[in-house]
Amino acid sequence: MQQDPSSDRVVKRVVVAGGGTAGWVTATALARHLGRLIDVTLIESEEISTVGVGESTVPTFKSFHDLMGIKEDQFMAAAQATFKLGIEFRNWGRVGDRYIHPFGTIGTRVSWMAEFHHFWLHAKSRGFGGELGEYCLEWVAGEANRMSVNAAPNMGYAYHVDATRYARFLRAIAEPAGVKRIEGKIRNVDLHPESGFIDALTLESGERVEGDLFVDCTGFRSLLLGQALGVEFEDWGRWITTNSAVAVQSRSSNPPQPYTGAYAHEAGWRWKIPLQHREGNGIVFCNEFMSDDEARAKLLAEIDGEPTIEPWLLRFKTGMRVKSWFRNCVGLGLAGGFIEPLESTSIHLMMAAVTRLIQDFPFNGCNEALIDHFNEKSRLEFESIRDFIILHYHVTERDDSAFWRRCRTMDIPDSLKERLDLWREDARAFKLEDELFRVDSWTSVLLGQRLAPLGYHRLAEMMPDAELRGHLDRMRSEISKIAAKMPTHPDFIRSYCPAEAF
Asked: Which residue range(s) make up the domain with 260?
């Protein structure tokens, strides 16, 4: 007779269903941090390909690696990685526009009462102050194609990585740490007849892999959480209408820039991700306004280097499972939800979720209070990132296509309406606890997409013009000097983390 895996059942055996970046990030983190307290088994099939387009990351990727004790130069060499100081946006506010969303801090805060950008806005109203990005080292260095991890304390950066090589790198860490890998396809998810908990996964070979906690890393299929347990998908397509992508890899035609390219077009946008050995390219679009063939042709016409493989098509839905954790199953990566590739948040969401899982690990059983706590935090994070992505599409002056006209006029979530109203009135921006995007991120995108506020915090008026001008000039000068001493991005990679193919 089968044992009922009730909420007070001790959790020892963890089964990770699926490999790729999500599976190996999860397995490696669990093994590294929980060690002998648990047993970790990962099931994957070499016959099942991974999505492999999430090659751009955000700065929390570095923080996660620091927690994991992963050496930066070794990881970068293995994953053919380059540095990322931000994202270059073209054609978003208007056709011909360009701005950078940098990953660093913008300016030095003058007062606890108001963010730096209020003082900059006051300076602009008085006829001086320059560009906002000039007060951000990452912006200045990125524009000059320079990079160094030792240039300044708390340098804000992320990476461009080869996702396939990265998963291979993690596997080489995870297996010696005790993770057991099983090759095979999952044929059936075996549920307990009374509780509905997952008892085991049966493979096509007939092997039955039992566990106490199951982590679904099966991608968009969501084989465990979605299909077997029936957790519904909450579709956000009414706000983020892009639903397709064509991706291709190409030879590098120029030295790698330390930022991702995000170039808007009439029905979506195109990405450019420079690695050490190649470039990752893709076009994201809404198939109501652009056909697959049109997207493929546009992508191939606009990439810089020669394609090295045939382009492939992806369909996706932006949204999340209504519960990230249900019964004894946690959905991570695409199995739990997906927010389209803009701003490169997929790997972050995966790493944040596995970090929460480690913090909230159900050693003494999958009780509802713990599960609800985990799900609440997951939803808040997903929704805050969702709003930031919607911002890019909605706050625009483009009216050159039906796609952009719909984005401009569509209804938006109340949570984003609140943020936009606060900004329009007097440039208020905020970051709640555990949110990914900082005030500087919101400010960069809002100003970059031409949403000029009507006012700003009047505290800035208390500083005399001469004093404010001197303060801003010194700040820009210091940043410029630091950036000028940095090596070029390609030279720094060659000296710090060269891959064999570079």
From this structure: 244-315
User: Are 231 and 346 found together in one domain?
Assistant: yes
Parallel, antiparallel or unpaired: strands 319-321 and 233-235: antiparallel
Spatial distance between the Cα atoms of 472 and 470, rounded to a whole number of angstroms: 5
CATH of the domain at 361: 3.50.50.60
Question: Is 200 within the bounds of a domain?
Answer: yes
SS3 268: strand
pLDDT tens-digit profile, the chain (502 residues): 344 445 557 899 999 999 999 999 999 999 999 999 999 999 999 876 665 555 899 999 999 999 999 999 999 999 999 999 999 999 999 999 999 999 999 999 888 789 999 999 999 999 999 999 999 999 999 999 999 999 888 899 999 999 999 999 999 999 999 999 999 999 999 999 999 999 999 999 999 999 999 999 999 999 999 999 999 999 999 999 999 999 999 998 889 999 999 999 999 999 999 999 999 999 999 999 999 999 999 999 999 989 999 999 999 999 999 999 999 999 999 999 999 999 999 999 999 999 999 999 999 999 999 999 999 999 999 999 999 999 999 999 999 999 999 999 999 999 999 999 999 999 999 999 889 999 999 999 999 999 999 999 999 999 999 999 999 999 999 999 999 999 999 999 999 999 975 4
* Phi and psi torsions of 50, nearest 5°: -95, 165
Looking at the structure, tell me whether residues 167 and 300 fall in a common domain: no
Domain presence at residue 88: no
Q: Domain for residue 181, yes or no? A: yes
What total of structural domains would you count in the chain? 3
pTM, rounded to two decimals: 0.95
**Which listed residue (62, 84, 272, 323) is catalytic?**
84
Say if 270 falls within a structural domain: yes
In degrees to the nearest 10, what's the CA dihedral of 157, 159, 160, 164? -160
C-alpha to C-alpha distance for 282 and 432, rounded to whole angstroms: 32
Q: Are residues 411 and 471 in the same domain?
A: yes
Three-class DSSP category at 86: strand
Does the annotation count 481 as an active-site position? no
191 and 323 in a single domain? The answer is yes
Residue ending a domain, choose from 275, 293, 315:
315
